[in-house]
Amino acid sequence: MTAANQRTRQRLSAEARRHQLETAAIEIVGRDGLAAATADAIARAAGVSKGLLWHYFTDFDDLMAHAARRAFTSLEAVVAADIDRDADVDDLLRAAIRRAAQLPATHGAELRTIRQIVLDLGAFGGGAALRDREYRALYARQATLLRRGQEQGQLRADLDPHLLAVTYQGMVDSMLEYLDTNPDIDPLSYADHIADVLLAGITPTRKR
Known about the structure:
By secondary structure, this protein is mainly alpha-helical. Helix content is 75%, strand content 0%. Helix 5 (60-81) crosses helix 6 (89-101). 30% of the residues are buried.
């Protein structure tokens, strides 16, 4: 490592360094699978010594948990970035589903990282707790939005907003997994199919 590179490494803040290491982990898991994401491989991809990993993370599981959480946050931010939050909730849901459908092409590494670390419980011991924590927070945010749609008459008021959030996210997750393994499928057509099915069941008759 050159002196200039050494100075650059020293100038990184703790948060920037954690971001660098988590990003390296996401890239390796997303490209090569969880088994390939060894401490040596992550440190090498980040251009640091392996010992530096344990300055920022307590152990390998802690690093993987932070990487999965960063992937969650990144994906949610990408979907939310193009959404008009003042739009009718049914239109907002359709727009979010269409935006999410593009993630396998644009953020495949993050999706595969979440699937392997969080959803493949046999591969990662803390996956269940991490999944429950992240999804619980996600459902709460979605339920708040769905409740607004009910209050404004855009969604059926007789449905439980939390269960609606679980149903919505389950449909989106299934869509993402299918699109990731079937890249020949047109993502926006599939997104519209999902939105049509979902909204047919949760909007008042007069809205259909």
